[in-house]
Amino acid sequence: MRRHHLASAVVLILMLGASSPAHAAKPDDNPATQAQGKVIFDRTCLWCHGVTGTGDGPAGWFLGRYAAPRPRNFTTGSFKFRSTPSGDLPTDQDLFRTVTKGIPGYMPGFASLTETERWQVITYVKSFSPAFLVETPVSLPLTGTATPLGPESLDRGRALYERFECHTCHGVEGRGDGPVAQAGDLRDVSGLQIQATDLTRPSSFKNGATLQDLIRTLLTGLDGTPMPSYASRLTGTDHDGWDLAHYIRSLSAESAP
Amino acid sequence: MLRRIFILTVGTGVLILIALSCLVLPNKAQAIPAFTRKYDVNCTACHTAPPVLNTFGQRFLENGYQLPGTEDGGFTGKKKLGDVTLDDVGKYLAFRLVGNAVRNWSFQQQNPAGADAGVVENKTEFTFPENFVLFAGGTVAKNVGFMVELGHDVEAGETDVERGFVSFNNLGAHNLAHVRIGKFDPSAFYSVVTIRQQLNDIGESTSSGCTPYASCSLNRVGLGPGAFATKFYGLYDRSGSAISPFASTLYNSGGEMGIDVHGRPFGDSFLYQVGVLNGANENFGDTNKGKDVYAMLRYDYAKSDYFAVNFSGFIYQGNSNVQVQSHQDVNWNRYGISTRATYKMVDLYAAYSIDRINKVPTGVIGNFDATATGETIGMDTYVTNSTLLSLRYDNIDAGGMMDQRTSASFIGVQAKQYLRTNVAIFARNDFNLRKTDGGEAAARNLRNAFSAGIDIVF
Question: Fewest C-beta atoms under 10 Å: which of A67, A214, B45, B357?
């Protein structure tokens, strides 16, 4: 049993290491870095996010037309994809992850920019919101012990899926067809209608589909959407997050990323 | 009258059936052709409504099928040959199937009377599919892109490489010079792009058995952008085949062989483009040995909320690129301006061009108007999340042989319903604004054209 926990800990450490895609030296947040980031932003990001970072670039409307999603408004300081508590700013690593991997269906990954260029553009993006000057965001720890996939874990995960009422939006089978979703009642912070994620298609998960990606999403929620944070309900137990993540992944026949 | 009512009823019924099918088909966003699969984004990342590009898509195209501001051709989407799967192949291949399920033509009378048994005063045709295009495109290495479009026109029974070129990008410095070599659409970076129209071209109908250097009777005019059209009656290619007054040509051709260079070395607001082509309607080889040249300058503004506007102007200089009825070479030139503005869901555009034949040969000089003009003004707008309305006005003030030329003005209206992001049905109607002018020319006789069909890309 002790050997099993040790192996799990090693796996967890390796996974956390793998979840940090940034390796290049991060340049200092200074006016020079910001100026270099602006050059990249104007070439690459402005078309959707707009010259003032409010998400109103000329191509932005067509992404969702009359429905969500629209490009992120950087000036509000509200971000969906974070490792930080709901309502907090994202860490630089969070922004780096989104810029690098993109958002399936909506934003391409910009891994083709050098790591330095990505850090530079992140410095510029942060300049749109004064909140980044006064807050220092801190990631929530990934809680619990990594539990292996097995019938027991899946059973516990299924129970949590029901207890947390995930099915009301995502549906019993996870197809994004729960009653609330079908009623068209899901809306984002700007009032635009959105769809619940189809959990049977992990490749469409906007915040990533690895186990730690799922746990991170469960812990932080997706600010500005009806997806709440389950941090207060998951932190008290040792393996709940992993069990629920295992169960969500089991809803799909797609191989794990 | 009863027949027409029957035809319209059947056509409407077909449309209703197709529309009802959207109620049972899933209506979820899907990543579609090659580039959306490669970058894992929806088609609306690059298109206002396919095939029309938004500003992000325009910059992607300018950058040689690499994300704007990047040089991602080196590795994105690449695998070792042994690891390639069918999904990976899908990142390079796509197809488009588009056509009218039903078309209805309303003529004032046969044109010319009794000349063509296939042309009656009013007729309805079932025609789907009319056009199938297979795309292969992407990057083969950092800053080296390619695109091949193999098209089959079912109606004409022709298969052709509509476009096929390689591009070498970011030569010298980022955005300094991008070079395309092969068969490409010269107007790809113009404000109003020939091959990216919501209202698809409907080709003209001519009498069969046209002899070289003889006037070829038009039974029905073509319905396409007036600014892009030939506009001249009585022009021939070097084999003596008549060139349609309604076909897109010169700078606005859908595909010509040559070399093209474009870039933005003077900042982000200005795009330059220069090119050399074999010449109008030349395919492989160059029968006249003279080259046509062109230059285009475009100004972009994209720094207001949800708003972008651009203006373009070009000069196209022909060099013995066409012949007249007397078998003599002439230089056929074009000068054009255009503009496009998008605000939220509204896409407005306009183009104007003047065509000019320099030095009309003595053989036709008394019967040849050396100047012709064309205008196109249009608008596309989403009225719901999945319904696109398009409106376009086209006018041709025709030139060429004065005993043949007839100017034409049409308004086209189209409603397009997206069942999925890659599947749309449409209904279109074109009205003749000059029908009251009378006469037996095709531009007067065609009173109304209705069509309804489907557009699929995957």
Answer: A67
